[in-house]
Amino acid sequence: MESYLFPFDSLICMLLGISFTVWFTLLLVFIIVPAIFGVSFGIRRLYMKSLIKLFEVSELMLSVSVILQRGSAEPEFDMSDIFYFCRRGVESIVDDEVTKRFTAEELESWNLLTRSNYNFHHISTRLTALWGMGVLIRYGFLLPLRVTLAFTGVGLLVVLTSIVGLFPNGRMKNYLSDKVHLMCYRICIRALTAIITYHDSENKPKNGGICVANHTSPIDVIILASDGCYAMVGQVHGGLMGVIQRAMVKACPHIWFERSEVKDRHLVAKRLSDHVADESKLPILIFPEGTCINNTSVMMFKKGSFEIGCTVYPVAIKYDPRFGDAFWNSSKFGMVNYLLHMMSSWAIVCSVWYLPPMSRMEGEDAVQFANRVKAAIARKGGLADLLWDGGLKRGKVKEVFKEEQQKLYSKVLVGSSEDRSRS
Amino acid sequence: MGSTNSTLLKIPNVEVLMQETGFSPAHIIRLHDRFKALDKEGRGHLCPHDFGAIKELAMNPIGDRIIGAFFSPGKETVDFHTFVKILAHFRPVDKDRPKEPNSPEPINSRSNKLKFAFQLYDQDKDGKISRDELLQVLRAMLGMQVTDEQLESIADRTIQEADLDRDDAISFEEFRKSLEKINIDHKMSIRFLR
Hints:
The complex is a heterodimer of chains A (about 425) and B (about 190).
Chain A: H1 2-37, H2 43-68, H3 82-94, H4 125-165, H5 171-191, E1 194-199, E2 210-213, H6 219-225, E3 231-235, H7 239-251, E4 255-257, H8 259-263, H9 265-277, E5 284-286, E6 297-298, E7 312-319, H10 335-343, E8 348-354, H11 366-381, E9 384-385, H12 399-422
Parallel strand pairs in A: 1-8, 2-5, 2-7, 3-4, 3-5, 6-9
Antiparallel strand pairs in A: 7-8
Chain B: H1 2-10, H2 14-21, H3 25-38, H4 48-52, H5 55-59, H6 63-70, H7 80-87, H8 110-121, E1 128-130, H9 131-142, H10 148-162, E2 169-171, H11 172-178, H12 184-187
Antiparallel strand pairs in B: 1-2
Helix pairs in contact in B: 6-8, 9-10
């Protein structure tokens, strides 16, 4: 019995060994090495183009099936079916290259992810088969690949920044730290299959400034940091995040606050100003909205970062919802859940616009300056410029705004009674 | 709001436009940017050729009908005001708007949205959708997926169900009645234009 199984056993081992080696070599050559040098084979863009074609095909199947399969044998038509095409047509007139699809909440064409399939039930076998294949590919092939890359990227980040931290402070250390950070973030980008288009790179943030961007998900950080070197700002975490933070700060100065320090606005402002005043330190990366917005609008910018009085480099980030919704609703999903969602999507496609630097003008206070920057970001990214405070997701309306409304209302009341008394 | 204000000032009669259409200044600016992008030769108005250059519109089965909706009969060009006013049809309905008795009906009302859709069918603008016009639209939307006989029977059935006064054509009132139960706001609105 046993001798019968033996050659079989070693054959399996050999096959496993070979496939493992092949797999690893491919990974190294096609993904990790380009990440180190910052070049690209263009594999991801090719992948994106084929995905778009796939969505178009599935959309065609869907739209025709929806119209044809209402009823039993005879295809039935409704006068309202024209609305679908009409709306799509007008959408294409209104949209432009800058902002592709705005329907992040409801996709007209199904991108073969169940989580965005609200109204479409089993419509045609072909479509369901396509979806099934999609599931296999995403969970069976893409997810393990991405998780491997993610672990590699994070692991390398921790190890290499700790090594760089051993160097004495100076140009060599800064150079190495930049290279190490960029390389690890690029691996993480590939771990998410993020396809990013950077526009106007001549406006990239420089030392001694603050980079300000709209916030949709924690991935924003990775997206920006893989194209330039920034000093991060954030709260000190425990666990794995804490390990990463401590390692990163050994290589170059990031700004991590203890939980208690975050409340002290003056302390925060002082640390930021000190950092900015030092020309040799990297530009600070800040997300003034304070919470993740669902990427269709830019909510109010908190004025804290705009009081520091240095050059602000605004950046607009817009995700293409066709490939996967990058929005993180932190009150609904935890971080791990969210990352799993991201890694089992098709891809993350987004555009980044570097806007020209702005400074506070004479006679402009911090709030006005913040609004000005916000309007510029919303306009570039094609995001609707909303007045609402993003913190509303969790808290109540700030007293100041309530007061403003009360003032207006009282003016109307008092004004109208005055008119009455005059007449 | 420095840069946004200066762009708004360049657009003539922008206050009237905002009031008639209900668009916010931010939207007007975005639409103005888009208008300028479509107007590649910088003439200040658009012609059918400019719309035809939009790839997705060219692929749309009723693309040419939609383009036709922008040009009133006899006119060969569309200026920014008309552009915005037509697009205002696709604004989502303002649910919290107070109903003032003497103000004109907003462009994005349910009735006006229906009128816009009606004119996509009624190409000769005689106020009725004839059987031929219906067949043309059906053929455009369904392409080669159905046979001629199926097309004819669909058209027959549609007219039979909707045509109440038996004149073998669908008037606007009959059109409106057949779509009573449909959520027009959802189907004929583009969310980001809110």
